[in-house]
Automatic annotation (TrEMBL):
One of its GO terms (molecular function) is nucleic acid binding. Residues 412-437 have a biased composition (Acidic residues). Gene3D superfamilies: Ribonuclease H-like superfamily/Ribonuclease H (3.30.420.10). This is Tc1-like transposase DDE domain-containing protein. InterPro entries: RNaseH_sf (IPR036397). Residues 408-457 are annotated as: Disordered. PANTHER family: DUF4371 DOMAIN-CONTAINING PROTEIN, PROTEIN CBG22215.
Length: 457
C-alpha cells in the first residue's frame, strides 16, 4: 500500500478553510461568480488574490516543474558549494600565477583574463565569484581604471612587506648565511580522507614543529606533542627552542619564522583598549611618549596604537639574536615563500589516509613521512629561492604597469586597509601576534618628537 503524504499544520488549516467555504456555499449559495476563479480560490483558501495570481503565473511558465511552483519563498537552502576551501600550498600557486601573468603578459590581469589563465594552468574549478573571494583572501583588490576597466591590484602594504623581506633575505644569502625555515602545524587523529572518523574523540591534535633548509630537515629538530592548554604548549615550544633548535642550527644561520602565535609572542605587550588607565599611562611614561592628564582612555589608546610598533619586541628574537641568529618573518599572504607549507599538506594527507585513531599512532605516521620526504624538502627549499627571484622581477614589472594607467580611488577608501594573514590555515593567530603596520606617523616619530595634539588631530 503506497505511503500516505502527511499534511503539515498549514496545509491542514487550508483544507479546513476550503471545506468551510464549500459548506457555506452549499447552504447560502455562491458567494462569487463561478468564472471569478482566482477570487474564489483566495476566499476558499484564506490567502490573498495577489498570492493566487503569483502562483498561477509561475505554474503557467512552459517547462516549470511542480517543485518550482510550490517552492517555499525565502527559505534558506544549501546552495552550490563555493570553491574557497583551498590549501595554503595551492593558494601560493594561484598567487604565483597572478605574478607570472605580469611577467608573461606584460599587463595587469582583468577578471576574464585571470579566470581563463587559472583554469588553463592550475585547473581552477570555480567561477568569478569564487575567484574574487580567494583573491581577497590573498590580499588583492579590484580597481577601476580611467577607461572603466577593472584590474587586479595588490594591497600596497603587502607588497611593501614582501619587498622588504626579499631584500633582506637576498642580502643574507649573498653573505653566505643559510636560511632555516621554522614553522608549526598539526595533524588531527579524527580526520580521514572522507572526513572526521565516526566514534573518534574530538580535539585530539598532534602539534608538529620542525625546521628545514637547503640541506633538508634540520637534524633532531622535530617536535611532536598532544595539544593541550596554551601555557602547556608554550612550555613545549620554549624547551624545543633552547634544546632542539638552537643547538642544531648551522653557524650564522638566519631563522625565518611563520605567523604561528608562539613565534610572534611579544616580550612586552602594549596595553589594549580594555586595559586600566594606570597601565596605559605607565606604558606611555616608560616609553617617553608625552600625553596630557586630561586625556580619556580612548585618546590614550590612540597614542599607544600610534607608537607601539616602534617598541615591539618578540620573545624568540632576543633568544636567537643572543646566539647570532637573526630572525625574519614571512610576509603576510605568501604561503608560497614557506617551503614547509607543502610539508604540512603532505603530512595531513598521509595521516588521514592511514586513519590514525590515537595520538601515538599519529606521531609514528608523521615520523615515517618526515623520513620519507627529507630529500623533497631540500628541493622545496631550493625552489623557494627561484620563487623569491620571480617575485623580485614581478615587482619591477608591476611598478611599470601601474605607472601606465590611472586608477580611481574613492575619498573614503584607503590603500592600506587590509587584514594581515600569512595565508596559513595551520595555526590560529591572536591579537598579540599580529604583525602590525608601521604608519608614516610612526616612522616620523623615530626621527622627531611629536606632540599629542599632532597625533589626535
Amino acid at each position: 500500500m503506497p505511503r500516505r503524504n502527511v499534511l503539515r499544520s498549514q496545509a491542514r488549516q487550508m483544507v479546513h478553510d476550503v471545506l468551510t467555504f464549500m459548506k457555506n456555499e452549499a447552504q447560502e449559495g455562491l458567494q462569487f461568480d463561478l468564472k471569478a476563479v482566482q477570487k474564489r480560490t483566495a476566499a476558499a483558501t484564506g490567502i490573498s488574490e495577489r498570492t493566487v495570481r503569483r502562483i498561477a503565473v509561475v505554474a503557467n511558465v512552459p517547462g516549470a516543474s511542480m517543485h518550482e511552483v510550490f517552492r517555499t519563498p525565502g527559505k534558506k537552502r544549501a546552495g552550490k558549494k563555493k570553491v574557497t576551501a583551498i590549501s595554503s600550498s595551492n593558494l601560493g600557486v594561484i598567487k604565483r600565477c597572478i605574478h607570472n601573468f605580469h611577467n608573461t603578459e606584460k599587463e595587469l590581469p582583468t577578471v576574464k583574463l585571470l579566470l581563463r589563465k587559472l583554469k588553463q594552468e592550475v585547473n581552477f574549478q570555480g567561477q568569478d565569484s569564487s575567484m574574487r573571494r580567494i583573491l581577497n583572501d590573498l590580499g588583492f583588490k579590484w580597481k577601476k581604471t580611467e577607461d572603466n576597466r577593472k584590474v587586479l591590484i595588490e594591497h600596497a602594504n603587502i607588497r611593501q612587506k614582501r619587498i622588504e623581506y626579499l631584500q633582506a633575505i637576498t642580502k643574507y644569502r649573498a653573505e653566505g648565511r643559510p636560511a632555516v625555515f621554522v614553522d608549526a602545524s598539526y595533524v588531527d587523529t579524527t580526520r580521514t580522507t572522507e572526513g572526521t572518523a565516526k566514534g573518534s574523540k574530538k580535539g585530539e591534535r598532534v602539534m608538529i614543529v620542525h625546521a628545514a633548509s637547503d640541506a633538508g630537515f634540520l637534524p633532531n629538530a622535530l617536535l611532536m606533542f598532544k595539544a593541550g592548554t596554551k601555557s602547556d604548549d608554550n612550555k613545549n615550544y620554549d624547551k624545543w627552542l633552547r634544546t632542539q633548535l638552537i643547538p642544531n642550527l648551522p653557524e650564522n644561520a638566519v631563522v625565518v619564522v611563520s605567523k604561528a602565535p608562539y613565534f610572534n609572542k611579544s616580550e612586552d605587550a602594549a596595553p589594549t583598549s580594555t586595559s586600566k588607565r594606570f597601565i596605559m599611562e605607565s606604558w606611555l611614561l616608560e616609553k617617553g611618549i608625552p600625553y596630557y592628564s586630561t586625556m580619556l582612555k580612548p585618546q590614550l589608546y590612540k597614542l599607544i596604537c600610534t607608537y607601539k610598533c616602534g617598541f615591539k619586541q618578540y620573545k624568540i628574537d632576543g633568544i636567537l639574536n643572543e646566539n647570532n641568529h637573526p630572525v625574519m618573518r614571512l610576509p603576510p599572504y605568501h604561503p608560497d615563500l614557506n617551503p614547509l607549507e607543502m610539508v604540512w599538506a603532505a603530512l595531513k594527507d598521509y595521516v588521514a589516509g592511514k586513519t590514525a585513531r590515537s595520538v601515538e599512532a599519529a606521531k609514528q605516521l608523521v615520523h615515517q613521512k618526515i623520513i620519507e620526504i627529507n630529500d623533497e624538502v631540500s628541493v622545496l627549499c631550493k625552489k623557494t629561492k627561484s620563487t623569491e627571484e620571480e617575485y623580485s622581477q614581478s615587482d619591477v614589472v608591476i611598478d611599470t604597469l601601474t605607472d601606465e594607467i590611472t586608477i580611481h580611488v574613492s575619498d573614503n577608501e584607503s590603500d592600506d586597509e587590509t587584514d594581515e594573514d600569512s595565508g596559513s590555515e595551520d595555526e590560529p593567530n591572536d591579537d598579540s601576534s599580529s604583525d602590525e603596520e608601521v604608519t608614516s606617523k610612526e616612522a616620523e616619530f623615530m626621527e622627531v618628537n611629536i606632540s599629542p595634539e599632532a597625533i589626535l588631530s
